[in-house]
Amino acid sequence: MLPQPIEKEAMELFRKAGHETILSPDTKLETVQPLMKAVHAVILRTGIKMTQELMTHADNLWVISRTGAGVDNVDVPAATERGILVTCVPGANTRTVAEHALALILALMKQIPLMDHAVRNDHFEIRFKTLPRDLSGKTLGLVGLGRIGSELARICHTAFGLRILAHDPYLTPETRVAFEKWVECCDMERLFKESDVISLHIPFSPATHKLIGARELGWMKPEAFLVNTSRGGVLDESALIQCLKDKRIGGAGLDVFVQEPLRKDNPLKELDNVILTPHTAALTRECVVRLAVEAAQATLDVFEGKKPNGIVNPEVLTQSRWQGMFSS
Fold first, then answer.
1. Is there a single domain that holds both residue 15 and residue 101?
2. What confidence tens digit (pLDDT) does each residue in 215-258 have?
3. Which residues span the domain enclosing 169?
């Protein structure tokens, strides 16, 4: 079942395998709920949350396959309790999201929106104010050094010679060793105080809810920039808005928000020191195909008795319904 459409390349996989697909007309709960009864799998994008309530209406659901790395719109404990496998595609969007974060960093550093607005309004003399800044030689602080964070670090260090600071308490010793020659791990306070650009690359969870708040923002340099391409909930949006209003930092680039779409009266829309994009970091033409195809393939693997990639809740496989399910 598809609460939202997916790319034709992924649909073709189901067609060739002879599986019927059901596309919901919309993502309203009252529309999706009755469709859950007969489905064996759900391919899930971000337009709806797969809640415990929705799962109770499924008689024989085996797998929920996310077309992305995040599973914050899946009640994973509820799925596990009901013996439903949850999968995601954590690697397919790595380079794409890193590119978007870099684009936001460069746009902030070079003041692209401001320059564009000035030229369109016949203020060509803005060129003499030397507002843009060099990225080369600056310090990049990364909160989270997983796939995307480490890829952004590699690009910035290799291409621009940035000094890299990182905070990630979940790094394995092996990963620390792999990065130790060019990434310096440190505590959050030092990272925020010393970085010229801070980029957030952490999943949303109860532990990371509003992890970055007024205290952390207060540690930043007056001209430093904050970029968030992870999840809106990891950042205290109200604290950031006040910080931007008071011009206490250089600016921000945001692809994710606490509420999406933004409310019409969200103050971020009125600020000229923030760049806003509509949760589109992973939504390039190429990446959405990769995400859909890999999510579809994970579902087909389950149907064909193969262990899929990207399993989020492996403990579910100890349950009786999964015994002897996978040949490999």
1. no
2. 999 999 999 999 999 999 999 999 999 999 999 999 999 999 99
3. 94-276
Q: Which amino acid is at 41?
A: A
Q: Are 88 and 102 contained in the same domain?
A: no
State phi, psi for 270 to the nearest 5 degrees: -95, -5
pTM: 0.88
Q: Is 260 a catalytic residue?
A: yes
What value does the mean pLDDT take over residues 190-211?
A: 96
Distance in angstroms (rounded) separating the CA atoms of residues 95 and 149? 10
In a domain, 185, yes or no: yes
Residue 151 identity:
E
- Give me the DSSP letters along 157-210: HHHH--EEEEE-TT--HHHHHHHTTTEEE--HHHHHHH-SEEEE----STTTTT
* DSSP codes, 230-257: S-GGGB-HHHHHHHHHTT-SSEEEES--
Mean pLDDT, range 175-203, rounded to an integer: 96
Number of domains in the chain: 2
Residue 9's pLDDT is 97
What CATH number is associated with residue 165? 3.40.50.720
Residues 246 and 297 in one domain: no
Asked whether residue 115 falls in the same domain as residue 258, the answer is yes
The catalytic position among 12, 260, 270, 304 is 260
Q: What is the mean pLDDT of residues 119-133?
A: 98
Q: Which of 151, 231, 237, 290 is catalytic?
A: 231
Give the position of tokens 């003399």: 125
User: What is the pLDDT at residue 328?
Assistant: 54
Query: What pLDDT is stored for residue 69 in this prediction?
Result: 86
Angle, helices 94-109 vs 112-120, to 10°: value is 60
SS3 227: strand
Per-residue pLDDT, averaged over 305-317, amounts to 96
